[in-house]
Amino acid sequence: MFHRFASHAHLMGFWKQIEPAALNIIRVTRAQSVTKTDQVPHSASATVLQPIDEFFLFMNYLSLGLMQKDLAHRFRIHQSTVSRIVNTWANFLYTVLGAVNIWLDEDTVKAHLPEVFQDYADTQVILDCTELRCQTPNSLLLQSEVFSTYKSHCTFKGLIGIAPHGAVTFVSSLYQGATGDKEILKQSGIVALLKPSMAIMVDKGFLVEDCVPCKVHIPTFLSKRAQLSRSEIRKTQSIARLRVHVERVIHRVKEHKIFSTVIPLSITGSINQLFAVACLLVNYQNGPLVKAWASNC
Length: 297
Fold this sequence. Notes:
Layout: H1 8-22, H2 30-33, H3 51-64, H4 68-75, H5 79-98, H6 106-111, E1 123-133, H7 140-146, E2 147-148, E3 153-162, E4 168-171, E5 175-176, H8 181-188, E6 199-201, E7 215-217, H9 230-254, H10 271-285
Parallel strand pairs: 1-6, 6-7
Antiparallel strand pairs: 1-3, 2-3, 3-4, 3-5
Helix pairs in contact: 3-5, 4-5, 5-10, 9-10
């Protein structure tokens, strides 16, 4: 799929929503993007793409993870022009989609609550962190900051939250891979959105009960016991079955192939925008996580 949208009609429906704003797009200029090693020759092609073609190019870059050199050949433009288009549209979509308030109030979440969540009806958001592998910096200090012991690789790490019915309702900035889940939650800003009447659902490694103002649905720990009780096993299994949906959403985000390979340091200046856009696009590109939930969405 060149753009990750469910159909061409789906793609064009999204385009119609953003087209009016695209008329006032603020472009990244040559002076902002060209480096000493990427000078544009005077003989470079001056081909100008229409806004919809630039949007399609950007979606090819995000969804297929194509090299900028490849895109330049496909669209018959200079590689430096591809770079400027990618940066321009990353900033534009980050601004436009970021202006939409994706955080839902409690009544809206409950109105769309799937039946399988009835035992955890106070769940406002299901949270999980994800990591994106990045190129190893030359600096040993930077290496220590971005190295993830969990992935045994240098990574960027972000927090994603979904409502029980599957919509992405929270996306954090990216942090260095060495940053813990608890610290990311504290710095992300989501704590300020939570109320005592709400609950969050997390994995067993997400020990955040002492830093949120609400209930936490989390699988039971064995601690020093030999085994869990039957009720604890049932609780752990039920939470695991429900929490898996945030992993499915993260999988949809990472279907944008740019995140399936090691991220080069050359695009770290725009990686936050690219990650946020990929997360927010999930709400527009796909159908419901579970077909039976279609009436709830």
